[in-house]
Amino acid sequence: AQKVTQAQTEISVVEKEDVTLDCVYETRDTTYYLFWYKQPPSGELVFLIRRNSFDEQNEISGRYSWNFQKSTSSFNFTITASQVVDSAVYFCALSEAETSYDKVIFGPGTSLSVIP
Amino acid sequence: DGGITQSPKYLFRKEGQNVTLSCEQNLNHDAMYWYRQDPGQGLRLIYYSQIVNDFQKGDIAEGYSVSREKKESFPLTVTSAQKNPTAFYLCASSTFKGQSYEQYFGPGTRLTVT
C-alpha cells in the first residue's frame, strides 16, 4: 500500500537558519513520482517539485534543495537561510505512474514557522 | 490568467442542509479532483473526474456527490449525510507533464456547519 510519512508535525526556526523537512514513503511500485507542495496561510497549495523514481539526482532551486534516496525511501526538503515568507505547511506526496489519472497520496504535512 | 476558482472562500451552513461548493477551471485540463483537508491529516481524495460526464469515488466519498457536465466545472455537494462536514475543501485539476500528471490547486473553500 502507498503511504507517505512526515514525522515532523511542527517546526520552528529563527530566520536565516537552515531547516530540513523529512519525508518517508512506501510503495510497491518501481515507477512512481514524488512531490512537494507548499500551503501558505491563504490555503492554496503551491507546487514545488516533482521527482520520478528513476532520477535520484539531488536538485537545488535557489534556497530550496531536495535529497531523494531510494535506499531509505526518503525525499527530504531543505530550505537554506530560511525567511519569514517560508512559513507554511509543507506536504510531501506520492503517485504511481501507471494510473491514467494522478491519484496522489499526501503526507500529513509539516507546519514550518520561521521567526524573525 | 489561467487557473482554478473556488467560491466562496468561506461558507457557513446549518446542520441538515445540503451545500454545493463551486470549482471552475480555465486551464483546459481533463481531470479534476476534490480533496478534503482536516488539521493534521493532510489531504484526502473525495471524488475525481477524468472526463466530462464521468467521475469516480475517492477514499472518502460517503456523504458527498459531484457532477461533471462541463469540462470547466466540477461542483461538489456536501449532503446532510456527511457526518463531519466542517473542513477545508480543495479542488484541483491536472494535466500530463513530462511523464506524469501535475496537479494544480484552487484557493479552497472553508466550510463550517453548525
Total helical segments of chain A: 0
Percent in strands of chain A: over 45%
Order of helices and strands of chain A: EEEEEEEEEEEE
Class per helix and strand makeup of chain A: mainly beta
The SSE string of chain B, one letter per element, is EEEEEEEEEEE
Rounded radius of gyration of chain A (Å): 14 Å
Shape, principal axes of CA atoms of chain B: globular
On the 0 to 100 scale, the average pLDDT of chain A is: 91
Please, what is the oligomeric state? heterodimer
By DSSP (H or I, 4+ residues per run), the number of helices of chain B equals 0
* Average pLDDT of chain B: 91
Largest sheet geometry of chain A? 6 strands, mixed
Ranges of chain B where pLDDT stays below 50 over 5 or more residues in a row are none
Distance between the termini of chain A: 41 Å
Question: Largest interface: which pair?
Answer: A-B, 24 and 27 residues
Distance between the amino and carboxyl termini of chain B? 36 Å
Low-confidence stretches of chain A: none
Helix percentage range of chain A: under 10%
